[in-house]
């Protein structure tokens, strides 16, 4: 009888201890990435709550949506983070699913290619860019979204391939 009583007393403790470990913040993953180009900010959120906010650099010509290859603009619209690019010339990179059907259609009307290879990435592998470079009006990419390397590592811990990214003007 004592054996069974001990089991009933100790079991609720183990059940409680095991379930609480799943609520730690390190286990929370973002379910949406939002970029607000005019603010030069990128937000990671989960269930509508902002988890992290980052200063970003954009394409050299950031005002307006990307229309064609070489326009140095960062796209605007709803996309997905569709894969992690291992061999990038930048410190780690997540590809954005630009161009979508609409982007192709709009570029074809202009008789041009929409471009592609739009990424969220860190700094160029061959040099470091100081934090001060990420201030407003210091956009330097060809249309991508750039972060500091340490921030890129953090983003990769908080997002999964396949989540949506909304890029706003």
Account of the protein in words:
The chain is an alpha+beta fold and 169 residues long. It has helices spanning 2-20, 101-109, 149-158, and strands at residues 32-36, 41-46, 49-55, 77-85, 93-96, 119-121, 145-146, 164-168. The chain has an eight-stranded mixed beta sheet with strand order 3-2-1-8-4-5-6-7, with helices on one face. Strand 2 and strand 3 (49-55) form a beta hairpin. The protein starts with a helix and ends with a strand.
List keywords for this structure.
169 residues; alpha+beta; L,D-transpeptidase catalytic domain-like; eight-stranded mixed sheet; 8 strands; 22% helix; disordered N terminus
Biggest beta-sheet profile: 8 strands, mixed
Order of helices and strands: HEEEEEHEEHE
Query: Which structural class matches the secondary elements?
Result: alpha+beta
Question: Which homologous superfamily in CATH is the superfamily?
Answer: L,D-transpeptidase catalytic domain-like
- The share of residues in helices is 10-25%
**What sort of overall outline do the alpha carbons produce when their principal axes are compared?**
globular
Q: Mind telling me the C-alpha Rg? A: 21 Å
Mean pLDDT over the full residue set:
83
Question: Within the largest sheet, what's the order of strands?
Answer: 3-2-1-8-4-5-6-7
> What do we call the CATH topology?
L,D-transpeptidase catalytic domain-like
When the domains are counted, the total is: 1
């Amino acid at each position: 009888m004592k054996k069974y009583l001990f089991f009933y007393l100790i079991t609720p403790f183990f059940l409680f201890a095991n379930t609480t470990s799943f609520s730690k913040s390190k286990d929370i993953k973002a379910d949406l990435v939002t970029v607000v180009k005019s603010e030069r900010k990128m937000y990671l959120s989960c269930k509508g709550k902002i988890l992290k906010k980052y200063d970003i650099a954009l394409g050299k010509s950031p005002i307006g949506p990307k229309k064609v290859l070489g326009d140095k603009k960062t796209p605007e619209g709803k996309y997905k983070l569709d894969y992690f690019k291992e061999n990038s010339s930048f410190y780690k990179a997540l590809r954005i699913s630009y161009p979508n059907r609409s982007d192709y259609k709009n570029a074809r009307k202009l008789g041009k290619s929409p471009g592609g290879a739009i990424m969220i990435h860190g700094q160029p592998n061959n040099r470091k860019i100081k934090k001060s470079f990420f201030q407003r009006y210091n956009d330097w990419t060809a249309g991508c979204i750039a972060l500091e390397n340490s921030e890129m590592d953090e983003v990769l811990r908080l997002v999964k391939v396949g989540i949506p990214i909304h890029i706003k003007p």
